[in-house]
Amino acid sequence: MLQKKKTEVYALGQNISMSAHKARRVIDQIRGRSYLTTLFLLKFMPYRACSRIFKLVWSAAANARHLLGSKNENLFISQAEVNEGSSLKRFKLQARGCSYPIKRPTCHITIVMKDRSLTNSEKKVKVFLDADNFLIDADDFVQKDFMNWVKNPITKPKNKYLTMEYHDMYSNGGAWDKK
Q1: 24 exposure class (CB count in 10 Å sphere: 0-12, 13-18, 19+)
Q2: CA distance from start to end of the chain
Q3: What pLDDT digit, counting tens, does each position of 8-23 carry?
Q4: Residue 47 contacts by C-beta under 8 Å, 6 or more apart in sequence?
């Protein structure tokens, strides 16, 4: 029986004391990026969640180096998700014998990293449009002269002079008649 080679590792942080919304704001920025770019972004972003996520990304990379034997240059974040955890419920005393509840939210963060060098055999074929509007594979697209395609893009307008319509925001678009 053939054994499938493992290509991804993960790091899981549970019951981290911050709201899931604040952690998602950072996770959305790093999803799909390479490992070194992610570390650079997390180092200089001004959010409090960055330090916890930095530790998780570092841990996932250490897991990849240990389990897969991969290098830092080949790692990228394939999945990153934040789930809500349980809330710590406390009460704070108020005047005249009253109290009000304090809810301290927690979240669970999962970082999944893949190694690019191990996933070459599972590469998905993407289809692009070239300058002549023909469908081609991703490998053919990279091998063509890309700079010529950039200079003459498909979306180039047919006429040089574009007509602009001016819309007055105070009118309803109808004819204006003098009385």
Answers
A1: middle
A2: 91
A3: 899 999 999 999 999 9
A4: 22, 25, 26
- The answer to whether the beta carbons of residues 74 and 117 sit under 8 Å apart is yes
pLDDT tens digits, 68-94 = 888 999 999 999 999 999 999 999 999
CA 148 – CA 144 distance, rounded (Å): 9
Residue whose token pair is 């395609």: 149
Q: Confirm whether pTM is higher than 0.70.
A: no
Q: What are 150's two structure tokens?
A: 């950039």
19 neighbors 107 (Cβ within 8 angstroms): yes
Chosen CATH of 8-116 out of 3.40.630.30, 3.50.50.60, 2.60.120.280, 3.90.470.10: 3.90.470.10
Domain boundaries, the chain: 8-116
